[in-house]
Write a structure and sequence with these properties.
The C terminus is likely disordered. About 85% of the residues lie in helices and about 0% in strands. The chain is mainly alpha-helical and about 250 residues long. It starts with a helix and ends in an 8-residue tail after the last helix. Helix 5 runs antiparallel to helix 6.
Length: about 250
């Protein structure tokens, strides 16, 4: 249980770090703002499309239902679809923001490393290669999250459990993958591949949950996600150092 508090502590340390470094914080806000505008348009379109298509495919099932039950069923489906969309939007928002802001967040993560040890590991890869690896790994994470989302969507139909336990599990799953995406900025520079990153996080699940689950809840509010993103990258860099137990000597 101690790791839950440690993970949350890294999240807070990251926010404090960017608060003390205004220039890095300001630059880190730009990618999130761009992504927010794109997602706002996409979610509005999804909501309009979902409202129309829901009645169409649910009609054969609900044609003979009485009015109160029909309304409850449609409301239930809408709630599940919104929950699934939010889960995926939190993860993809982070992935897209990190991709758009790769140079900004790389610089931010490096400065956190330098502040901690006087030295920032470098991948030695050109920018285009780093962008490709980041996009490829993010897509793999989104696919994994989508599979979890479909499973949790199905489990959401279980009475009581589906409306209580399953949403909590959903936030934990979202938080775990969110941490992977954020920590990847620092770990990729250290040559840690996706499979190794997932293994590291699985070995410290409570640490990942302590950092990622509160962040996943906060990211449900779009503008809050933009404000917290730079600090989340800084905190994830600090946590990555813990995961690898780095003790890097200052540069001579």
């Amino acid at each position: 249980m101690r790791d839950l508090g440690v993970g949350f502590g890294y999240l807070m340390k990251g926010q404090r770090w960017v608060a003390q470094h205004g220039k890095q914080y300001g630059m880190g806000l730009l990618p999130g703002l761009i992504t927010l505008v794109l997602y706002a348009a996409a979610l509005v379109a999804l909501a309009l499309l979902g409202h129309r298509s829901r009645d169409g495919w649910a009609a054969p099932i609900t044609n003979d239902w009485s009015s109160p039950w029909l309304g409850l069923f449609r409301g239930f489906l809408t709630a599940l679809l919104i929950a699934l969309a939010l889960l995926l939007s939190v993860l993809t928002f982070t992935a897209v923001t990190l991709l758009i802001g790769q140079p900004f967040y790389e610089s931010l993560s490096e400065k956190v490393d330098i502040a901690e040890s006087g030295h920032a590991p470098e991948s030695g890869l050109p920018l285009w290669r780093e962008l490709w690896i980041s996009a490829r790994d993010s897509l793999r994470i989104v696919v994994r999250a989508l599979l979890w989302g479909v499973l949790l969507f199905a489990l959401g139909f279980i009475p009581v459990i589906g409306q209580t336990v399953i949403p909590v599990i959903g936030f934990c799953v979202t938080g775990f993958f969110l941490v992977e995406e954020l920590a990847a900025v620092a770990l990729q520079r250290r040559g840690v591949e996706l499979r190794e990153r997932l293994a590291l996080l699985r070995s410290r699940k409570q640490l990942a949950w302590g950092f990622g689950t509160p962040l996943a809840v906060a990211f449900l509010v779009p503008f809050v996600a933009v404000l917290l993103m730079p600090g989340a990258v800084a905190g994830a860099t600090l946590m990555a150092r813990d995961l690898l137990r780095t003790d890097e000597a200052p540069a001579a």
